[in-house]
Write a structure and sequence with these properties.
heterotrimer; A mainly alpha; B mainly alpha; C alpha+beta; A: 2 strands; B: 2 domains; binds heme-A; binds dinuclear copper ion; binds copper (II) ion
């Protein structure tokens, strides 16, 4: 009975199974990653050399906007939810997510939401072209007609995320196996619990923002219009109240992933478990009071600038605790470097570099020089690509044997890693320099003095793009014809999913609760 | 490990497959897609350009309303069927106490998300009142803003004359809003009585007080419709009356929308009570409705204070 | 194994080369120190953080690399078993705090200075609009638009960084900029002055600069740094700094120029223009000022920028056509050109639009018509 599962396509449409839903999330996010990445290729092709070669400025802006939106809402967030779906029930010893039907609804909203968003590319006036931050009034009074479709698409994504988050929280609070106390939970579960809390707090605020946009556009309200007593800057305050926690929503689950993988391949317990939990919670709480570091140039009062500068810099402290804990976990361990470990190590190093540029950006007087240049683009790609994306990649390699019962080819995995490592740096490191040299972001054409950096970045980007195709092939081969995986594939792995379940994990797990001591 | 715990888990029920989520996703899609087309078509801001070749706008703009209505119908049908299934399963005794807890916790977190949605609008209101209006009037480092751009602007709240000179009248706090406050407070009280009656297994009181609460909700809504009518026709206060009108209508409007949902919820609960649903132990839906109503009530109190009173 | 080790070492050294390359002061790879006290202050602070970050990197990455080499399974088959240490964790919470305080202090001082625009000696109102800057000298009767010079080739050193009219300011003077916008948000940035301020429609932000005397005669270039629509990449900021005397002379010339231009415009307006002359001036004006939205072929980019070919307004009564060009249309990027173009240019461009691309209305609009319209307004 345990491995019986429904068949046909209604298995996927009507499913209440967290594993099926997790797989759908993961594949969906991969498709979105390829689409968003293809748009990045358009951007990089246009920027390969100065002069306008391939696209119109307006279309370039659409590409930038859609690239950012799709990567953030379509690739990274759903991939994290996919991991949560697969792993949280297995890791806390639950039979499934707490609210399985709602879980399915959360997922199925997404393909429709992105159909709506992507269809805007074919509308008169083109897709949204005002950046993924959609500042008013460029997106309100001056937005193209497709903006309304974008707004309602964002509403749909928000509904999906909120329901997903509620599911995670309730699962964690209510579905743990007896004996699985909160402080025994794997860190991945902890980081997701906190992420889910962030989602519930900020996604509705995003919904409020886009609702105000909609009424400003069509029903005469004046939220973002000074002539009526509103303020365009208020848009930014409300947006970033969502936006800053959002970036931690994208990274915290990845923190959780590497906190599982590094101990496994160090064959040593995670160093400072409880301080990891407290650090994650501190990052989340601080994230609510730093939003205006994206707005140092808007002309805030001095006191505001000082407050947001100092609060932002403080985040380096708990994040540092995490980084040091990872290093201490490896210290005097017994390390091996399989693919998941390689990606996790690269995560720690490159995320830290991205974090350092974050601290630089946080210093308001210097941010006046960095703001809205490629230095910012370099910063956030360092925390997002080798951060969030490497985190997910590591997770996929690490848990693939548990999910599918098949092992990937270790050599392919390593090749994938080294290609990613080289190209990620080749793509995004030069952006620091073009930013420092003064190149603004979101421009389709530039002066000769930025040419070299851009050429390197573009070459790196094409390489990085091909590397993703290689990843896809590696995965498909592993799933179709990989070696049979062992129940406990990794010597140092811990946790219920490795100790109490076979590989692949049966369709229904833990219909009786496992013992946790 | 205790035995009860194991039992609890063995009874755990993973619901059967269900078509409703995907139907709901399709419904939402139609709602959004039709809604966007409908809004564009009615406000006429983007009359479809007569371009050659394929054009979304030309294809769909006239159908927006129909698609929207279709989506709405599907959503309502989906919710109805989904909940019907859930009620049926619950009555079959499939749901353990743990499931009940999941539902309850889920509802509470959902209410938190609603709170944050309102927080966005309250945040906007406070930001406008505390910062923007004074700044437009030249405070802080905005002396030049006032001097060069809005020399005639007088900072005040309620903002009855906007920087570009649109004028309106503010809505007073006494009169209708005060009556509405009283109504909602009373409804909270009647609902609590009903809830206690449910726990004490006093069916008649339960039915009576739940219906009274729903009825109070309806009165509240009628009065609010009247208030809006008054605002538009007598006070010249509209959505387009600058930021005062914007915040006033958006906050009270979303609140009113929530009261509507809550009232429908209460009506359904009254009917279910009359049909003999809910036991003193298991009445998640009732509790959810009650929480929702109290939440709507608390939001109103904040509204009354920040939008009307001060 | 050996290969793997080499690769790790290779990556590490690559990173350190890149990092140290990035911090060589005043090289191509670094931020420019700029010319003002504040820009140099920002640069120094930047260098300070960079070195702090490099130092932390050395410690953190150093420890990691040490682990990779000496704590690998082949070297260290039995892992240690420790899993926490309150004292160590305490230390590495405190040390970052100390580092941050060390960084914050100079940052606060610099920020306070940068935000203090008081006691300025002159003020210039800087207004961004799609996609040009307008400068207005509040103490003098000088104001002008600054548009991208689109004639430069890609290999020109100033490609995309050249304008028709530069902002001119004197050295050794605290100049206050009052930054605002007409339509969407723009941002006015000159890296060498470390001045970057968002231009928010409906609000005025203040910022300032004070350029030391030794930089007289230099030109500083920057760009708009807030996404402002299609041509966001095409609205440079160019500032020319003059010695105090040269600046005075410049102000005087500007005044003369203005008087002469007013006279010429009045004469041109009084004259009656024939179709060819109107069409010729109309075409140049159109291509320079209108073509970026309505496109040189008049087809625009609907629905954002309407086509003027076969447009109801351009083929309808001249009155309506004049109205939209003179007054613009609020809430759209169609700006009011009444004050930006001379009456003759306006008459010419309207005539051009009414007759080009097969619009063929045959109408001519005379400068006098424009004047009459403005008078009746
Ligand atoms: C996953 C996403 C992610 C993460 C984790 C971060 C992390 C951080 N970010 Fe980043 N950020 C973005 C995504 C992210 N950011 C994005 C997408 C944007 C651009 C949005 C847009 O405009 O489009 C942005 C922009 C952005 C800005 C605005 C820049 C501008 O527009 O001018 C700022 C400014 O303060 C900033 C700061 C920080 C800081 C201080 C952190 C910190 O959390 C970093 C903390 C980590 C470390 C510091 C490293 C490890 C610590 C140690 C080893 C301890 C010792 C260190 C010290 C004592 C310094 N970020
Ligand atoms: C998680 C988020 C994420 C990820 C993974 C990426 C990935 C990439 N980004 Fe991302 N980017 C953002 C989030 C992200 N980005 C955000 C938020 C912005 C800001 C948007 C804004 O300003 O509003 C931004 C902006 C941004 C810019 C600045 C644009 C501008 O300012 O105008 C650039 C420029 O180079 C860029 C490049 C890239 C590249 C080359 C990749 C690559 O890593 C992508 C690699 C993946 C693929 C390429 C897909 C696989 C390949 C194919 C589908 C086949 C096609 C391949 C070939 C033809 C080779 N991005
Ligand atoms: Cu103006 Cu960007
Ligand atoms: Cu941030």
């Amino acid at each position: 009975m345990s491995d019986h599962h429904p068949t046909g396509f209604t298995r996927w449409l009507y499913t209440t199974n967290h594993k099926d839903i997790g797989s759908m999330y993961l594949w969906f996010s991969f498709v979105m990653f390829l689409i968003g990445g293809a748009m990045a290729m358009v951007i990089r092709a246009e920027l390969y050399q100065p002069g306008l070669q391939f696209v119109e400025p307006n279309f370039f802006n659409q590409m930038t906007t859609m690239h950012g939106l799709i990567m953030v809402f379509g690739a990274v967030m759903p991939s994290m939810v996919g991991l949560a779906n697969w792993l949280i029930p297995m890791q806390v010893g639950a039979p499934d997510m707490a609210l399985p039907r709602m879980n399915n609804w959360s997922f199925w909203i997404l393909p429709f939401a992105f159909t709506l968003l992507l269809s805007s590319l074919f509308m008169d006036g083109g897709a949204p072209n005002f950046g993924w931050t959609f500042y008013a009034p460029l997106s309100t009074t001056y937005g193209p007609p497709s903006t309304d479709f974008f707004i309602l698409g964002v509403h749909m994504m928000g509904i999906s995320s909120i329901m997903g988050a509620i599911n995670v929280i309730v699962t964690v609070f209510n579905m743990r196996a007896p004996g699985m106390t909160l402080m025994k939970m794997p860190l991945f579960v902890w980081t997701w619990l906190i992420t889910a809390f962030l989602l519930i707090m900020v996604m509705p605020v995003l919904a409020g923002t886009v609702t105000m946009m909609l009424t400003d556009r069509h029903f005469g309200t004046a939220f973002f219009d000074a002539a009526g007593g509103g303020d365009p800057v208020m848009f930014q305050h409300i947006f970033w109240f969502f936006g800053h926690p959002e970036v931690y929503i994208m990274i915290l689950p990845a923190f959780g992933v590497v906190s599982e993988i590094i101990p496994a391949f160090s064959r040593k317990k995670l160093f400072g478990y409880s301080s990891m939990v407290y650090a994650t919670a501190s990052i989340a709480l601080l994230s609510f009071i730093v939003w205006a570091h994206h707005m140092f140039a808007v002309g805030m009062p001095l006191a505001g600038e000082l407050f947001f500068m100092i609060a932002t810099m403080l985040i380096a402290v708990p994040t540092g605790v995490k980084v040091f804990n990872w290093v201490a976990t490896m210290w005097q361990g017994s390390l091996t470097f399989e693919t998941p470990m390689l990606f996790s190590i690269a995560f720690v190093i490159l995320f830290t570099i991205g974090g350092f540029s974050g601290v630089m950006l946080a210093m308001a007087p210097v941010d006046f020089q960095y703001h809205d240049t490629y230095f910012v683009v370099a910063h956030f790609h360092y925390v997002l690509f080798p951060g969030a994306i490497f985190g997910t990649t590591a997770a996929v390699y690490y848990w693939l044997p548990k999910w599918t019962g098949k092992m990937y080819n270790e050599t392919s995995g390593k090749i994938h890693f080294w290609l990613s490592m080289i190209f990620v740096n080749l793509t995004f490191f030069p952006m620091h320099f073009s930013g420092l040299a003064g190149m603004p972001r979101r421009i389709p054409d530039y002066n000769m003095m930025f040419a070299d950096f851009n050429m390197w970045a573009s070459i790196g980007a094409f390489g990085l793009g091909l590397t993703q195709i290689y990843f896809l092939i590696t995965l498909v081969i592993a799933i179709r014809s990989g070696k049979k995986a062992e129940d406990k594939q990794w010597e140092g792995a811990t946790g219920l999913e490795w100790d109490a379940l076979p590989s692949p994990a049966p369709y229904h797990t833990f219909s009786t609760p496992p013992k946790v001591d | 490990m205790s035995n009860e715990a194991e039992e609890k888990y063995e009874n755990y029920y993973v619901p059967e497959q269900s078509p409703w989520p995907i139907v709901g996703a399709i419904g939402l899609f139609l709602l959004a897609f039709g809604g966007a087309n409908f809004i564009q078509n009615t406000t006429g801001k983007y009359a479809p350009a007569a371009t050659e070749g394929f054009s979304f706008q030309v294809l769909f703009s006239d159908l927006g309303g129909i698609i929207f209505a279709l989506g709405l119908t599907i959503i309502v049908y989906m919710l109805w069927s989904w909940w019907r299934d859930a009620i049926r399963e619950s009555k079959q005794g499939l749901y353990s106490a743990q499931m009940d807890r999941s539902f309850k916790q889920g509802m509470l977190w959902f209410i938190l998300s609603e709170v944050m949605f309102f927080a966005a609008f309250f945040g906007a209101l406070l930001y406008v009142r505390q910062l923007i209006i004074p700044w437009l009037g030249g405070e802080g480092n905005n002396v030049m803003t006032h001097a060069l751009l809005w020399p005639n602007f007088i900072p005040e709240w309620p903002l009855t004359t906007t920087p570009d000179g649109t004028t309106t009248t503010a809505m007073g706090a006494m009169g209708l809003p005060a009556i509405n406050t009283a109504i909602l407070l009373t409804s909270s009280w009647t609902l609590t009585i009903a809830h206690h009656a449910l726990k004490d297994n006093n069916r008649q009181a339960l039915i009576n007080y739940t219906s009274i609460t729903a009825f109070l909700g309806i009165i509240f809504l009628c009065l609010q419709v009247y208030e809006y009518y008054h605002a538009y026709n007598d006070l010249g206060l509209t959505l387009g009356s600058g930021i005062y009108g914007s915040t006033f209508f958006m906050l009270t409007g979303f609140h009113g929308f929530h009261v509507t949902i809550g009232t429908i919820f209460l009506i359904v609960l009254s009917i279910r009570c009359a049909k003999g649903d809910f036991t003193e132990k298991q009445h998640f839906a009732y509790e959810a409705g009650a929480w929702y109503w109290h939440f709507v009530d608390v939001v109103w109190l904040f509204l009354f204070i920040f939008v009307y009173l001060i | 194994m050996a290969i793997r080790r080499k690769l790790i070492a290779g990556i590490a050294s690559l990173l350190s080369v890149l990092l140290s390359g990035g911090v060589q002061a005043a090289s191509d790879l670094n931020m420019r120190p700029g010319v003002t006290e504040t820009s140099i202050g920002a640069f120094d602070l930047h260098m300070m953080v960079v070195w702090v970050m490099v130092a932390i990197s050395v410690v953190v990455f150093g420890a990691m690399i040490y682990s990779f080499i000496f704590h690998r399974k082949s070297k260290n088959p039995t892992p240690a078993t420790f899993s926490h240490s309150t004292s160590v964790e305490f230390v590495w919470t405190i040390i970052p705090i100390i580092i941050l305080v060390y960084l914050t202090w100079p940052a606060v001082k610099l920020l306070v200075k940068m935000e203090d625009a008081s006691e300025s000696e002159m003020s210039i109102q800087v207004t961004g609009s799609q996609w040009k800057w307008h400068y207005k000298y509040l103490e003098n009767d000088i104001n002008f638009f600054s548009n991208l010079d689109r004639t430069l080739a890609v290999d020109d050193p100033n490609y995309l960084l050249e304008v028709d009219n530069m902002l001119v300011i004197p050295v050794d003077t605290k100049v206050r900029f009052l930054v605002t916008a007409d339509d969407v948000i723009h941002s006015w940035w000159v890296p060498d002055l470390a001045v970057k301020k968002d231009a928010i429609p409906g609000f005025i932000n203040e910022t300032w600069t004070n350029i030391p005397a030794e930089h007289a005669g230099k030109i500083f270039r920057g760009q708009c740094t807030e996404l402002c629509g299609k041509d966001h990449g095409f609205m440079p900021v160019v500032v020319k700094v003059l010695s105090k005397d040269d600046y005075k002379a410049w102000v005087a010339t500007k005044n003369d120029e203005r008087i002469a231009a007013e006279k010429a415009a009045a004469e041109a307006a009084a004259a009656s223009w024939d179709m060819d002359k109107l069409m010729a001036l109309g075409k140049t004006t159109y291509d320079a000022k209108c073509g970026m939205c309505h496109m040189p072929n008049g087809l625009g980019m609907p629905p954002t920028f309407p086509a003027l070919k076969d447009s109801r307004i351009a083929k309808g009564p001249a009155e309506g056509h004049i109205d939209i060009v003179v007054n613009g249309k609020t809430g759209t990027s169609m700006a009011a050109y009444g004050a930006q173009l001379t009456d003759a240019e306006m008459a010419a461009v309207i005539t051009y639009e009414r007759n080009a691309w097969g619009n063929n209305t045959g109408d001519t609009v005379q400068p006098a018509d424009i004047q009459a319209f403005k008078a009746g307004n």
